[in-house]
């Protein structure tokens, strides 16, 4: 099962996981979200789309939405916290290398630019930007961002991100037409997956045009 296939057919695979593993599904979801937010080497893992899909399955009774919410929220918060500590310990050494292994330099540079533009609130905003979401806490730790400020933004960002993704997925899955045509969730998941990237590209183009005029 490759990543693209998993994202496109996430309703199929997640359904099979729920059917085969039952309550262990919560642990599997926890680990995926934790790794996506907590390890800089796994920014490719599904985040928004997986949470959305899990909530959609909760809407049809396959999962408990409140257990799902708490599990994902804890995974997101803990992931960023661990990532911050990793960045604090080895971030500076990795960023000094011209071509660090396993980590793309362009991702680090992109995240640094994000921080320069948004400051401490980047930890909150980054939750909604793929790739940057994974690298933001790492860069915060590397830059020795005040730990308590980081925790504050981390908690706020986690609550907003998980609440929005779970709420949207649960609401969408509860629509009667969707319940009768659950394959529509696939289209919604793809939309949720590409929307942040599309917005980011659009904003960069607008910024580039403004700079050209200046």
The major sheet is characterized as: none
How far apart, in Å, are the first and last alpha carbons? 48 Å
State the low-pLDDT regions, or none.
none
Number of helices: 11
Mean pLDDT: 81
> Which radius of gyration do the C-alpha atoms yield?
18 Å
Proportion of residues in extended strands: under 5%
Strand tally, please?
0
Question: What's the gist of this structure?
Answer:
The protein is mainly α.
Explain how this protein is built:
This protein is mostly helical. It has one domain (3-213). It has helices spanning 3-8, 10-21, 24-38, 48-59, 65-96, 105-118, 122-125, 132-142, 147-173, 176-180, 184-213. Helix 4 (48-59) runs antiparallel to helix 11 (184-213) and helix 5 (65-96) crosses helix 8. The protein is globular, with a radius of gyration of 18 Å. The model has no long low-confidence stretch (mean pLDDT 81).
